[in-house]
Specification:
The chain is an alpha+beta fold. The chain contains 10 helices and 18 strands.
C-alpha cells in the first residue's frame, strides 16, 4: 500500500460528516478538528502560508514558484466533509488485484457489492481497491481529492527539477450540504484559474454543471374528525400527492441523463393538518432552469386558486449555477487539463456534471474552476469504492497540469 492510499485511508477513518441543520461554519465540530489537523500537516510537509480561516473553515497553503517566467498562479481545491450517510467507525477494506467478481463487503451482515448492480466494477479488474465494510460510506468523496493534491505537492517539493509557477491549494467544509464555497475567499486565493479534484472515474474532466435550486413547500390542511369530515377535511398528504402529480412525471433523476434536467422530491413529511415537501430543481440550460422554478410556483398558485385560500406556500432559493457559462469564455484550464491527460495516456472524458462542485460557485466568484477525476465511484453510500491505481493517475494529472502551466 503506497503513501497516497495510506493517507486516504487515514483520512477516511475520521468522521467529517456535514450537517444541513446546523447554522455554524463549518457545520460540524469534527470538520473543524480535521481542518486544524490538515493545517498542521501542510506546514510539516513544507508548504508555505498554511492557514485555517476560522471565518469560512477553509485551509489554504502555497507551493511557491520555482521559476520566474510569468507562469500564472493556479489552484487546486477539494472538500473534506462527507455526505449524509453513516460515517461513524469507517473501516476501509483493501482488495488487492481485484478479480472482477462480486465483492463480499460484510460477511456477518451478508452485504455484497454485485457486479450485476455495479457493472462499473469491471473497469477496475486487476486494480487494488479500497471499499467500505458495508455499514458506512468510505469518504473518498472528497478525501481522495484532498489526498491526491497533498501527495502531488509532496512530490513537487521532492523534485525541484519540475518547474512550476505558484500553486495555491484549498480544502474546505460543507460542500455536501451546498454551503461550503459560499464563503470562499476568492480574492485572497489569488489565482488565474483553479481545479476542483472532486470527480469520479479516470479521465473525467468536467466544466459544465447543473443550475440548481431548492424549493421548500409548506402544505396547510384542515383536521376534522373523520366521522364528520365530509366537505371539511383537507389532508396535506393528499395535497402532496396532488402537487407532485402536476409535475412532469418523466423528468426525475431515475429517468434522465446527460443534459436532461429534473425535479426531485427529496423529502416529505405530512400529517392531516400540516405538511412539508422539499424539491431540488436541476437543469444545465439557464432558460429551462427558470422555467422549472416557475412551474413550481405556478402549480402552487393554481392549487391555491382551486381551494380558495393558501393551501400551498413555497420558499425557493438558488443553490449554484452552471459553471460552463463562465469557463466557456476562456477554455484554457480545460485545454491544459486535457493535454495533461493525453500526455499521460489517459483518455479525457469531457462531460457535464449531473450535480455541482464547489467550482460551480467559485467560477462565478471570478476563478474559472473545472473539475478533475479522483478515481472514486458509487459515492454517498455503502458501495463506495476507489481504485488505488486511478488515484495515482489523478495525482500524476495534477503534477502534469502544473508542469505544463509553467512551459513558455
Amino acid at each position: 500500500m503506497n503513501q497516497l492510499s495510506q493517507r486516504l485511508i487515514r483520512y477516511c477513518k475520521i468522521n467529517t460528516r456535514s450537517d444541513e441543520e446546523s447554522t455554524t461554519i463549518p457545520s460540524t465540530a469534527s470538520q473543524v478538528a480535521f481542518a486544524q489537523m490538515l493545517t498542521k500537516e501542510l506546514e510539516e510537509i513544507g508548504l508555505s502560508q498554511a492557514f485555517l480561516n476560522k471565518d469560512n473553515g477553509f485551509v489554504t497553503a502555497t507551493l511557491p514558484a520555482n521559476v520566474d517566467n510569468g507562469a500564472d498562479p493556479i489552484g487546486f481545491i477539494a472538500h473534506f466533509d462527507t455526505a449524509d450517510f453513516n460515517a461513524e467507525n469507517i473501516d476501509p477494506q483493501i482488495i488487492a488485484n481485484y478479480d472482477g467478481q462480486d465483492i463480499l463487503l460484510n460477511k456477518e451482515l451478508d452485504i455484497v457489492m454485485r457486479v450485476s448492480d455495479f457493472p462499473n466494477l469491471k473497469a477496475v479488474t486487476g486494480h487494488t481497491l479500497i471499499t467500505t465494510d458495508g455499514t458506512t460510506l468510505l469518504g473518498a468523496d472528497d478525501k481522495a481529492g484532498v489526498s491526491e493534491i497533498i501527495e502531488a505537492m509532496i512530490y513537487l517539493l521532492a523534485h525541484p527539477e519540475i518547474k512550476h509557477g505558484e500553486i495555491r491549494i484549498a480544502f474546505g467544509p460543507d460542500e455536501e450540504i451546498g454551503r461550503g464555497a459560499d464563503h470562499f475567499d476568492a480574492e485572497g486565493f489569488n489565482v488565474k484559474f483553479a481545479y476542483t479534484v472532486d470527480g469520479s472515474t479516470i479521465g473525467e474532466l468536467e466544466y459544465e454543471s447543473f443550475n440548481a435550486a431548492q424549493a421548500k413547500i409548506t402544505l396547510h390542511g384542515v383536521s376534522v374528525h373523520p366521522g364528520t369530515a365530509k366537505d371539511k377535511m383537507i389532508n396535506t398528504a393528499k395535497l402532496a400527492i396532488e402537487f407532485n402529480g402536476l409535475l412532469p412525471q418523466d423528468e426525475v433523476p431515475e429517468k434522465t441523463e446527460h443534459y436532461q434536467g429534473f425535479f426531485l422530491l427529496q423529502d416529505m413529511k405530512t400529517s392531516i393538518e400540516e405538511g412539508w415537501m422539499t424539491y431540488i430543481i436541476r437543469d444545465h440550460d439557464s432558460t429551462k432552469f427558470q422555467e422549472r422554478k416557475q412551474l413550481i410556483l405556478d402549480i402552487a398558485d393554481s392549487m391555491n386558486k382551486k381551494y380558495g385560500t393558501e393551501r400551498v406556500s413555497v420558499v425557493m432559493n438558488d443553490q449554484y449555477y452552471n459553471m460552463g457559462d463562465i469557463i466557456s469564455k476562456d477554455m484554457r484550464p480545460v485545454e491544459l487539463a486535457k493535454q495533461a491527460m493525453i500526455n499521460l495516456q489517459i483518455e479525457p472524458v469531457i462531460q457535464p456534471i449531473r450535480g455541482g462542485t464547489d467550482g460551480s460557485k467559485i467560477s462565478f466568484m471570478g476563478i474559472p474552476t473545472p473539475n478533475l477525476f479522483t478515481g472514486g465511484e458509487n459515492f454517498h453510500g455503502k458501495f463506495e469504492f476507489i481504485s488505488c491505481e486511478v488515484m495515482e493517475k489523478a495525482k500524476a494529472t495534477i503534477i502534469e497540469i502544473i508542469r505544463l502551466n509553467a512551459v513558455k
